[in-house]
Amino acid sequence: MEQIRHIIDGAEVDSASGARFHSVDPWTQQPWAEVALGDAEDAARAVTAARRAFDEGPWPRMGRTERSAILHRLGDLMTEHADELALADTTDMGKPLADMTKKDIPRSVLNFRFFADHSRLSTGEALPMDSGHHVYTRYEPAGVVSAIAPWNFPLMMETWKLAPALAWGNTVVLKPAEDTPASASVLGRLALEAGFPPGVLNVVHGYGPNSVGAALTADPRVDRITFTGESGTGRIIAGSAAANLTPVSLELGGKGANIVFADADLDTAVHWSIEAIFSNAGQVCLAGSRLYVQREIYDEFVERFCAAAEALVVGDPKQAGTQVGPLASAEHYKKVRSFVESIEAEGGRMRTGGLGDGWTVRPTVVTDAPQTSRLWREEIFGPVVVVAPFDTESEAVAAANDTPYGLNAMLFTENLSRAHRVAAALKAGTVWANCFFIRDLRAPFGGVGNSGVGREGGNFSRDFFTEPKAVVMAIAEAAS
Ligand code: NAD
């Protein structure tokens, strides 16, 4: 069985307690890896290492060019080890291997390359003043970062946090989700090979409450907390951060609205709407899980959408051709199953889908459910979409905005003015018009309401992971 250990201060180590737990492959439902089970003591060891690496080590003091080269070297090594990294996440959480190699790995590598270049090339501001002074800004590394990650895009989410934090000269303690420890350990080893000094990137495995996660958010030696996960967990972490006044970035849940107007290109709308809810078996914060379709095309759209959903290949994530794998864990499968089993009782009609073999759920399309039902209100985080007709643009916008979440929304129309008007009216951190999931890493990424606090991406990440400083210079009169 695979052995996974922590990486603390440049070495692979077991937990101080010697405790271990198993990571379970959701397709075989069997344990496949034995993992060091960390606790508060291991978290404290890692923070001590990160603190020392920041306060005394070369990393924050290194020139940007040298740091950038190490980040690029890590990108090279990740590319060389792409198969190992892809297999790690697929075995841990059931994501199709093809998605890992085509999407998650390239994007994870890009996260490092982008922030390597972004930090090296970025500039500060010079602010000329009237009074014989001028001001300039410096972006100084913030210190020790606790990074706490979810299981749905393990490597991709982790690198999205690590790359800017490290590029800007911070040191990090990463806690991967307990269901997906494997890729983080491979990454930690590759980082050492790439030349990261000991203590700069530490990886500690374990649970959240009363464990590693809670310890990493309560430690006063931590300067930044970056968290991606459920909205409820985000509230707990915000409370913990508040006790130490530690700045916190929260990327939380979603219940994305997807509005298809009658004048949309239907092929485009069906293609992206399918991708938006069924990729990664719907375990996507950005999932387009609430679908509003204008009444004139409602029946035709639902028919084409259901046909496309039925054509998706559900099964073994390691088989080429599989598009929808199992849900990530027994616990998560039970949660999604309870939503599927409640469809009728909630007043909905299942048009296609339902429970599949093992921990799979077939792409499930629900119509007729009342807008007040759990199916419309709660994040299911599985391959289940609710669909309803609408008549007017204002009705669609009001329905889309009627949610406590606000991570993203989508709209499909060939009317240019409407596209801009509706994009402006939607309460969401990202709006995609006639597409989905297209990202520019300079753009702000994050949510409103229960979907989070703060933004990541480009300068937004820089502002979070640095302490911007103003230096005010007096310009003395020339001696005559
Ligand atoms: P989760 O909140 O259960 O766990 C996320 C991480 O937090 C895990 O590492 C977990 O161990 C840790 N954790 C749990 N309780 C903790 C505590 N009290 N203190 C410190 N750490 C704690 O979330 P999940 O089930 O792993 O992920 C799915 C959720 O993440 C969904 O809601 C999804 O929408 C959201 N998500 C959001 C984004 C985004 O960018 N907004 C991206 C991916 C996933």
Q: Could you walk me through the main structural features you see in this protein, from its secondary elements to its overall organization?
A:
The protein has 480 residues and is of the alpha/beta class. The chain has two domains: 2-252 and 447-470, Aldehyde Dehydrogenase, Chain A, domain 1 (3-Layer(aba) Sandwich); 257-433, 3-Layer(aba) Sandwich (Aldehyde Dehydrogenase, Chain A, domain 2). It is built from 15 helices and 21 strands. The strands form five sheets. The chain has a seven-stranded mixed β-sheet, sandwiched between helices. It has a six-stranded mixed β-sheet with strand order 10-9-8-11-12-20, with helices on both faces. It has a three-stranded mixed β-sheet with strand order 1-5-4, with helices on one face. The longest helix has 25 residues, at 97-121. It is globular. The protein starts with a strand and ends in a 6-residue tail after the last strand. The mean pLDDT is 97. Bound molecules: nicotinamide-adenine-dinucleotide (NAD). Residues 148-152, 157, 175, 177-178, 207-209, 213-214, 217, 228-230, 233, 236-237, 251-254, 285, 379, 381, 407, 447, 452 line the site of nicotinamide-adenine-dinucleotide.
